[in-house]
Amino acid sequence: MLGRLEHLHAEVQRLRASEAKVTDLQSEVKTLKSEVQTLELRLQNSESNVQSLESRLRSSESKLQSLLGSRLQGSEAKIQTLASNVQYSKLENKALQKELNNTKSFGPSNPKKDNVKKNILDTKIRGKRLIGSDIIPQLVPSATAFSAVITSKFDRNIGGLHVFVYDHVECNLGGSYNNITGIFTAPRSGVFAFLWTIVAEGNSNGDSNFGEIGTELLVNSQPKGRANTDTEVASDDDQATGFVIVQLNQGDVVYVRSVKGGAQGVLQKYTQGGWTFSGWQIA
Q1: Which of 29, 38, 205, 263 lies 20 to 30 A from 256 at CA?
Q2: CA distance 183 to 31
Q3: Which segments cross the bilayer (predicted)?
Q4: Domain residues of the chain, as ranges?
Q5: What distance, in Å, lies between the first and last C-alpha atoms of the chain?
Q6: 3-state SS string over 200-214?
């Protein structure tokens, strides 16, 4: 009997020791769970910080691109302005030299005749405008003007909404017209005038359709003016001109295209006229 009691006592002691170990293990598990939760929270905070840094990086890149683009455009505009001013200065010097040479016809120098020479020269340089190269126009700082012509022959195959490219440039003060794309880009805000001429030939081009086309001038894809020409019989060549005055903001684009209906017949004929596109700033 005594032996059995001692055995039971030993089993009770072992059970109590096991319970104590279980309690310790449960405590360790709780500690580990707490540490895991802490690590998960730190990981979430790290991910949030990474996202915030990525957002700030994208914002910085966007600002940098905007700043570089703005400075680049400003530099290009300044270069165009300087080039225009240099061109005008050369024209002015040439005109002044020619006028000075012309005044030599007054004969030997004397105060009265010298005063007449000076008055004539001052009058011509200040205000008189003539067509040609005898006298240059009044100088306009950063002048913007262009005129271009289409040099190739084309027909109805151009289709609708075709942007016309006036490839041969007669004049491009300020360099704002692009003869590769046919587009004028306003270098500054202001009032601009635009003129375009179209031609249709009274020739059916092998079918029953004689030359006919409608065109429109657009500012940032918005129609601002329209010109149409239509021939009905053989040799009934026709020409039309469109003209608009518009208020532009810096960076606005202007171009001429065909209307949705497209065109028919032969449209380009040099003997009766040509396709031209011109524009200039007036205010």
Answers
A1: 205
A2: 73
A3: none
A4: 75-126, 145-281
A5: 124
A6: ECCCCCCCCCCCEEE
